[in-house]
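User: Show me a protein chain along with its predicted structure.
Assistant: Here is one chain, sequence first, then C-alpha cells.
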Amino acid sequence: EALFATTVAAGPVGVWGLPGLAYRGAWPVRAFGVAPFARAGDDRAVVVRDDGTAALVPVGDDAVPPRVLEVVGPASVAVAPDGGTAVFGTLGGSAYVHDLRAPAGTPPRVWRAVRDTVTSAAFAPDGSRVFLGFGDNRVAVWDPEAGTEQLVLERHRSMVTGLAVTPDGTTVVAADGQGAVMAWSTEPLAVRWRRAAEERGRVAAWRTRLRARLAAGETAATVRASLDADPGLSARERGSAWVALLTEVFGR
C-alpha cells in the first residue's frame, strides 16, 4: 500500500493510505507540513522531524518507539528498494547514509557533496545508484556503495524540486522550480548506441519480411496483426515497423 504523511502546526504525523486516503493512524514523531518520508519495507518508514532530525518509525505498531537517526538539517530522504539503506539530503549540501539494519546508534556515512541544499533524492530500482537534486539546479548521480559522485547533470535553470526513476532504471525524471520537467538517460552512450543498432536491425528484418508477404498476396491487415503479436519487438520497434508497412502499402 502507498502511504501519504501529513501534519498540521508541528503536530504528530498523520498517515494515510493510497488510493482512497484511508486514515492509517499517526506516527509518534512531530513534523511540519507534509513530512518528507519514505517507506523502508512493509513495516517501517523514515521521516524527517520538526527538530531537524530524522527517525525510523514503525508502520501500524504504535507500541514500538521511533529510532532516532543522526542527520544534520535533513531536507529530503530516499530509501533503497530493499529497505536496508536510507539516504538523507541536507540543507548543507551533504548526504547522510544510514544502514537501517545496523544496531541503533550506528553512525552514518556522510557524502560531502559541497553543493547547495539537497532538495530531493531517489534510488535506482536495483539500488545501484542514488540520484540527488540540488538547490543550485543540478542533478548528481552517486554510487551508494563507494560513496562517490559519478555524474552531474546541468540543464535545469532553477532548483530541482523532485526526482523519480523509471521502473526499468534507464531514465531519471527531474522537475524544477520553473515548472520544467527533464528526462535523463542513465545508460552509458555506448550501451544506447548498441541497443539502437539492434533495434534498427530488427526493424529492417521485419521490413524485409513484410515486403515479401505483401508481394505474396497477404493483406495489410493480416501483416499488421502478426506485427502486433510479435513478442520480439518493443513498442518503439513495432511503431517503426508499422510506419514501414504503411509506406509499402501506400507508397507503391
